[in-house]
């Protein structure tokens, strides 16, 4: 007999936690077939044993999930709700196993690196060749990701290390600064200020400005905001760029100036000039971030190479 009293949420949860995933699979198969004999064949088990497991599940919950007669099997209202939730639970369990196995295979076969363009320009040329020399069998996968997505990718175990901007929110992640660069002014070569060797902030007041999208630029946006506030610099925002290459292209189109990290000087081309800011320019950090519990040998070697690399970590314009 089933309890006719209302079962408390705590009691149901306790019973639910004691259930095995196989009991959920048994129930879903019976619910799909609405026939114990066919379900038993699909599950490669005996029909009496399957019936007993379903009864055990109902007793554990304290509710009836199936209406049984000699002619048919039907879901109760509670059974319909339980079926939907059981499917979700089994799907999540499958994803958990799949992602765990993927992570193990990835750790066995190599290292996955997430990065913003600064790492591509300043870090990778120094360390990737040496990493390939030290670990010739290692498969290195590079994933270009905006800062906003890198922390999520690290926590989901989709990448092993991230070269990204601040901020880093999770306490599960360890980070260290690997590069500090000043921001520089990028101007179309035809701009009157391009004739100067250095540019004071007040010279940019009221000029057409190409801003960086705060959703994708990480710390860059806030550093520019603080600098402009400090110098009472009014920016006439013409466009908002979601990535560095777009920012450069908009400058190249003579739409305005931009404030970007110094590494972009190597990407600017002949139609853009880069000028240092006069009087204490703002600086931007590049972080190397990893999961604190990731101790793979390949990742450890990569971290060591970056820490020991001959990178000018405090580039002064």
Structure keywords:
disordered N terminus, 12 helices, seven-stranded mixed sheet, 45% helix, D-Maltodextrin-Binding Protein, domain 2, two-stranded antiparallel sheet, Arc Repressor Mutant, subunit A, 317 residues
What does this structure look like?
- The protein is an alpha/beta fold.
- It folds into three domains: 9-105, Winged helix-like DNA-binding domain superfamily/Winged helix DNA-binding domain (Arc Repressor Mutant, subunit A), CATH 1.10.10.10; 110-177 and 285-308, D-Maltodextrin-Binding Protein, domain 2; 178-284, D-Maltodextrin-Binding Protein, domain 2, CATH 3.40.190.
- It contains twelve helices and eleven strands.
- It has helices spanning 9-18, 21-33, 36-43, 47-61, 77-109, 117-122, 124-134, 147-155, 214-217, 219-230, 244-252, 297-308; strands spanning 66-68, 73-75, 110-115, 139-144, 161-164, 173-188, 208-212, 236-241, 258-261, 272-276, 283-291.
- Strands 3, 4, 5, 6, 9, 10 and 11 form a seven-stranded mixed beta sheet that branches.
- Strand 1 and strand 2 (73-75) form a beta hairpin.
- Helix 7 (124-134) crosses helix 12 (297-308).
- The longest helix has 33 residues, at 77-109.
- The radius of gyration is 30 Å and the shape is elongated.
- It starts with 8 loop residues before the first helix and ends in a 9-residue tail after the last helix.
- Mean pLDDT is 87; it is low at 1-7 and 9-17.
């Amino acid at each position: 007999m089933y309890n006719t009293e209302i079962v408390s949420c705590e009691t149901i949860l306790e019973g639910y936690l004691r259930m095995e995933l196989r009991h959920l699979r048994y129930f879903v198969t019976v619910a799909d077939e609405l026939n114990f004999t066919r379900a038993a064949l699909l599950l490669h088990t005996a029909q009496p044993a399957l019936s007993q497991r379903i009864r055990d599940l109902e007793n554990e919950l304290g509710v009836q999930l199936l209406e049984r007669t000699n002619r048919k099997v039907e879901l109760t209202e509670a059974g319909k709700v339980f079926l939907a939730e059981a499917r979700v639970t089994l799907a999540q369990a499958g994803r958990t196993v799949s992602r765990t196995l993927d992570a193990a295979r990835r750790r066995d076969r190599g290292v996955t690196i997430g990065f913003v363009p600064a790492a591509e320009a300043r870090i990778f040329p120094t360390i990737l060749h040496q990493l390939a020399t030290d670990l010739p069998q290692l498969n290195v996968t590079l994933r270009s990701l905006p800062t906003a997505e890198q922390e999520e990718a690290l926590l989901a175990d989709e990448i092993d290390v991230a070269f990204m901007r601040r901020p880093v929110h999770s306490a599960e992640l360890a980070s260290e600064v690997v590069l500090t660069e000043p921001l520089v002014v990028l101007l179309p070569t035809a701009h009157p200020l391009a004739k100067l060797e250095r540019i004071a902030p007040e010279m940019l007041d009221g000029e057409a400005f190409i801003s960086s999208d705060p959703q994708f630029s990480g710390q860059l946006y806030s550093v520019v905001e603080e600098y402009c506030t400090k110098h009472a610099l009014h920016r006439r925002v013409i466009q908002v760029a979601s990535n560095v290459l777009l920012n450069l292209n908009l400058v190249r189109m003579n739409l305005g100036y931009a404030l970007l990290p110094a590494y972009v000087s190597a990407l600017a081309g002949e139609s853009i000039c880069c000028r240092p800011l006069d009087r204490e320019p703002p600086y931007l950090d590049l972080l190397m971030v990893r999961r604190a519990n990731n101790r793979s040998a390949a990742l450890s070697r990569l971290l060591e190479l970056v820490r020991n690399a001959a990178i000018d970590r405090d580039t002064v314009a």
